[in-house]
Amino acid sequence: MSNWLTNPLSYVLALGVISAVASIGIWAGRVTEAKGSVAKAIQEIRADIKKIFERLPPLTSTVSSPMRLTDLGREISQEIAAREWAKELVPLLAEQLKDKSPYDIQEACRNYCFDLSNFQSSEGRVAACRDSAYQHGLEIKQVMNVLGLELRDAMLAHIGLGMPE
């Protein structure tokens, strides 16, 4: 039996094993380094996304269908007594909206409320809307959107269409 130390094939095999182990070590180091880079990039992306969301204005209504008030929208509705105000506005618009689809009613109610010239006789209520917009860091249109959705709901109830579930 020959001694394995004197066999040249043993040296080649040992060099192959050492080379493979070194290659695996280098590869593992690169993978670990890449993982760190990816983790750092993900943290930076998360921070950027948070900054973007901080710059977006809070929503007073959902973007789902049908549109509904968010918690903030319901809070504003109570502050400006939008539901009661909407009930007062229903008779002004009922005749022209009675044969419209729910979508057309929604758009007509929102457009009516976005036009502040429709509320010249309600200057105190418009002032309350401006105050609410200021207190919540919103634009007046977002507060009037709350009134528009409350008006839509009151109009749909008045016409007998009700709000879909």
Describe this protein's structure:
- This protein has 165 residues and is mainly alpha-helical.
- Helices cover 73% and strands 0% of the residues.
- It has 6 helices and no strands.
- The chain has helices at 8-55, 71-80, 82-97, 102-114, 123-136, 140-159.
- Helix 2 crosses helix 6 (140-159) and helix 4 packs antiparallel against helix 6 (140-159).
- The longest helix has 48 residues, at 8-55.
- It is rod-shaped.
- The termini are far apart.
- The mean pLDDT is 87.
SSE layout and pairings?
Elements: H1 8-55, H2 71-80, H3 82-97, H4 102-114, H5 123-136, H6 140-159
Entry summary:
It contains 6 helices and no strands. With 165 residues, the protein is an all-alpha fold.
